[in-house]
Amino acid sequence: MKIVLLNGTIVGNKTKVLLEETEKHIKEITDEHETSIVNLEDYELQFIDGRPADQYNDDMQKLIKEVEEADAYIIATPIFQGSIPGTLKNLFDGISPRAMRNKPVSIVANGGTLQHHLVIENQLKPILNYFRCLVTPNYVYTHTNHFSTQGELIDEDVINRLKTLANVFTKYMEMSKNLESE
């Protein structure tokens, strides 16, 4: 199965660090899956305005195809101004409503305040529920204090929660093999 670890922003490094740590733990559990980290900053993003996918630039077409063809997702997002970044929402707007159906998704996020974890519950999960994804119940939210001044993840509790997230995610992947995607 193909896992896309999606970095939902074009700035900063904390979400990259969270994805790399999560990918490491998934690979410790099983090496039978293909993983790829997709950084939105590596693409020439275009504003999604309702056109068919084939009318966007090559990068947007490639990005949409890569996401739609994955079997499972780890989505990493920073929380900006009490919301997910526009870059991530823009990508969701380009994905077919059926492309992520019955596919496992886990969420990792980082924010500047402890209360920003509510964005996952009030914004990101409803979008993923619209796609009818299999969203794991345990997301990992981090705060600036969980990282060193050099951007390294230093909080052992967060590292352990990422290990647990990876374990639950791989169980959801096993479960999803018996479900039809559309």
TrEMBL record:
Root EC class: oxidoreductase
Enzyme Commission no: 1.-.-.-
All residue ranges annotated as the NADPH-dependent FMN reductase-like domain in the record: 1-143
GO MF assignments: oxidoreductase activity
Keyword line: Flavoprotein, FMN, Oxidoreductase
Pfam families to which the protein is assigned, alphabetical: FMN_red
Keyword Transport part of the UniProt annotation: no
PANTHER family: FMN REDUCTASE (NADPH) (PTHR43408)
Name the UniProt record assigns to this protein: NADPH-dependent FMN reductase
